[in-house]
Write a structure and sequence with these properties.
CATH class of the largest domain: Mainly Beta
CATH architecture of the largest domain: Sandwich
Structural class: mainly beta
Shape: elongated
Helix content: 10-25%
Number of domains: 3
Oligomer: single chain
Low-confidence stretches: 1-26, 44-59, 100-105, 565-577
Radius of gyration: 29 Å
Largest sheet: 6 strands, mixed
Mean pLDDT: 86
Strand content: 25-35%
Number of helices: 10
Distance between the termini: 13 Å
Number of strands: 40
Amino acid sequence: MKKLFLFAMVAAALSGCSNSDEVDTNPEVQPGGEGYVGFSIQLPTTPGTRANDVFDDGTPQPDEYRVYNATLFIFKGENETSATYESAYKMNVTTFNTVSGDQCTTEGIVSSKVTKPTLTGSQKLFAYVIINDNGLTDIANNKLGGTAYTTTTTFPTFSKIVLDNIGNKTNGFVMTNAPVANFAGGASDPGESVTTTTLSFLDQNKIFTTEAAAQATPAAEIYMERAAAKVTVALSSSMAAVPNPGISADPNVKFDKGSIKWTLSNVNSTYYNTRQMNNSWLRYYADGSDGALISASKYRFISGAAIHDQVYRTYWGEDVNYTGNTGLISAPGTLDKKAEDGKSVYTYENTFNVKNQIVRNSTGIAVSATFNGGHDFYTANTYGANNILQVPGAGTGEKIEEYIMKYLCNNNTEFKTWYDADGTNRINVTMTNNDADGTAVVNTITTTSTNPLPSSATPANVNSLIKFQYYKNGVAYYNVLIKHFGDDETPWTRANHSENSVEGVYERLNGTDIPAKSEQLYLGRYGVVRNNWYKIELTGIRQIGSPTTINPGTGTGGDNPDDNVDNYLSVKIHITPWAVRKQEVEL
């Protein structure tokens, strides 16, 4: 399977230009005095060296890059961990031209009038910016998303304020500081000294008396990323080229490729305002013991290419529900997006540790496809999952009453004797169908023969022997889990794992217990991370799916590991810049 989507971060690098007629030649501002601070925000598209580290402008470009507003938060302290909130300001973004016709401008000037803080000892100033706040910031009342903060609030606490708005194309996408590393990853071990930072050092000597001076000489470099993740589902070119595709299990079983619809399933409803990066992940790597590994992305949590001098993108994050995922909306909504249209949706990040890498916690897509020309049909557990049985007296294939007779003839001597006694002996059945759970039972069995039915030909007996599934309007459903690092960076081979449990799938490799190594090998294999574009390409359908929509949060199978030993579902996923990850999927 090809790697899930390309993973990319929207970075905002701050460099300067002037939009004023005069630059102050005496910029000294005293502590407590008012001055101006300026930033040049750049939304880079420079790729790293990872296998799927591809960046582009997204679709549509203007909406995904537009800057409507920006809010600056200043923190003060000796370092990022201890720094506390100092002050906040709305910034001037009128000169940040993000759209010119259909083109996207990825850099511009923002600035703000600020009060210069007083520093003591080894204290420093740090900058945090929120772009396109979508009504989340209330700096007059010291609130973010309705949560209050004070001058004693540390940045780690501030960064975990929970939000529930990622923005949209009308008001722009929320963007915040991104965690970046100081050493390269990818093919190289970043070493023991590698760390990540999210706040940007703000040079207090670059707070000027005029806005022109501030815009000409930026006070910091800030790297931004969108709070949203993007998911696109489309048919592969090979699938789209086939007029009447059949399933892999039986090419004679056809489906309508134009009927394939989808929606997101098991999505998060909230997110931390800042992506949470854990330094303990930075030197993790899959060693190839469970399959092939692309060496260029061995150290998968850090990019191998710098976006600035000793500044590297990081990948993955700890979300609001990382060790429990109790805040997920598991039931999918209406499947209203046609795969052949290639549409996109935006969503919150959803990540988890390996212990919680199970179906119930994982975001995916719910997919539906239509079989049997859109007519109702049944399948039977005694006949094979891909054999369609027509409703009584209808359809062109095998009818359900014919299969029941065949089954009883093969498994009941009394019924076979009755059937063979007269060539006109036949049965008629009526069914009771349950739309809610996709089941059906035999309601009545009658015959027009003069010979009475044998005792084995009763609805109760047949229902005890055969379990029927009912597909209303011929629609079958699938659940496709979204991969983040995927097979290239976290290889997993079904043959190496025999027990269908989290322990058997992720903590036991070829019969050897590896619990201490599981995070290193498989962390981030599945999940959805902000500022990544997950492009899921449907390559075909392997077999008929479920008769009802799959709710990952309830019912059987929710506690199964994401890599199911008994899995019969596959996909192809791609991701783009944003960061793009691809995933190919056969349903």
